[in-house]
């Protein structure tokens, strides 16, 4: 089966400027993702979709390809990941290359490993789903959530407060690291809502969403612990 890794790395990050190539424990954070994709040996091509020449140069330095730059319509704040993936597939078709499956990887996900990519790809094939998500379990039962309105709280689900926490069904959220897709359903539906989905569960030490400076520091701390690295700061 022909596969492509698409690492989505536009240049206009706002909350952490230039975060897609910011040094993470000594090397650009995108390099960790490129390394994992290359080491998995799953892909016919590991490419970076970017509108930024500096990001493109760093991606190529670490072994990815950048066969074309992202168009302006998919470089703004309101372009979706699906828009970017479809653009990449269209650009490849123009040069006569098609893929049966793709993995969309986010460039600020240094906890991705080649083994995780392999395991999730096997799930895509085994379950014959359209998409596979990496998931984490919520650490607190979300059925016991409160709503807050002008200082007054109400229960989101009053019945759940009558149950023991161990009797509540575990709930999960997307880790925001990567997604495996079967290309044909993605092209057909062009949205996530109508895709059959599978999930692989990741523990809290092996994923961390990075949106703020605090997130960045916590992610580096966790990475050091996982890899037995010392800090000399």
UniProtKB/TrEMBL annotation:
Q: Name one GO molecular function term.
A: nucleotidyltransferase activity
Q: Which Pfam families match?
A: CTP_transf_3 (PF02348)
Q: What is its EC number?
A: 2.7.7.81
Judged by the first EC level, this protein's enzyme class is transferase
Asked if the record carries the keyword NAD, the reply is no
Q: Which InterPro entries match?
A: CMP-NeuNAc_synthase (IPR050793), Cytidylyl_trans (IPR003329), Nucleotide-diphossugar_trans (IPR029044), PseF (IPR020039)
Keywords in UniProt for this one? Answer: Nucleotidyltransferase, Transferase
Gene3D superfamilies on file: Spore Coat Polysaccharide Biosynthesis Protein SpsA, Chain A
The keyword Ubl conjugation appears for this protein: no
Tell me the domain of life.
Bacteria
UniProt-listed PANTHER family: HAD SUPERFAMILY MEMBERS CMAS AND KDSC (PTHR21485), N-ACYLNEURAMINATE CYTIDYLYLTRANSFERASE-RELATED (PTHR21485:SF6)
Which named protein is this? Pseudaminic acid cytidylyltransferase
Organism lineage reads as:
Bacteria, Pseudomonadati, Bacteroidota, Cytophagia, Cytophagales
**Gene name of the record:** pseF
């Amino acid at each position: 089966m022909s596969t492509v890794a698409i690492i989505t790395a536009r240049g206009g990050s706002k909350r952490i400027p230039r975060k897609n190539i910011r040094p993470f424990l000594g090397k650009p954070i995108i390099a960790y993702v490129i390394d994992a994709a290359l080491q998995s040996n799953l892909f016919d091509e590991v490419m970076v979709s970017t509108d930024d020449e500096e990001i493109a140069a760093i991606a190529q330095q670490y072994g990815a390809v950048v066969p074309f730059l992202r168009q302006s319509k998919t470089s703004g704040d309101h372009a979706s990941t699906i828009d970017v993936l479809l653009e990449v597939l269209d650009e490849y078709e123009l040069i006569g290359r098609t893929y049966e499956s793709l993995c969309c990887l986010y460039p600020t996900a240094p906890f991705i490993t080649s083994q995780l990519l392999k395991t999730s790809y096997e799930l895509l094939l085994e379950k014959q789903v359209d998409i596979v998500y990496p998931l984490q379990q919520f650490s607190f039962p979300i059925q016991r959530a409160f709503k807050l309105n002008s200082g007054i709280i109400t229960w989101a689900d009053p019945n759940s407060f009558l149950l023991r926490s161990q009797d509540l069904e575990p709930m999960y959220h997307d880790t925001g690291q990567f997604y495996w897709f079967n290309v044909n359903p993605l092209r057909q539906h062009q949205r996530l809502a109508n895709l059959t989905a599978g999930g692989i569960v990741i523990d809290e030490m092996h994923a961390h969403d990075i949106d703020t400076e605090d997130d960045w520091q916590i992610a580096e701390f966790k990475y050091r612990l996982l890899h037995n690295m010392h800090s000399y700061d």
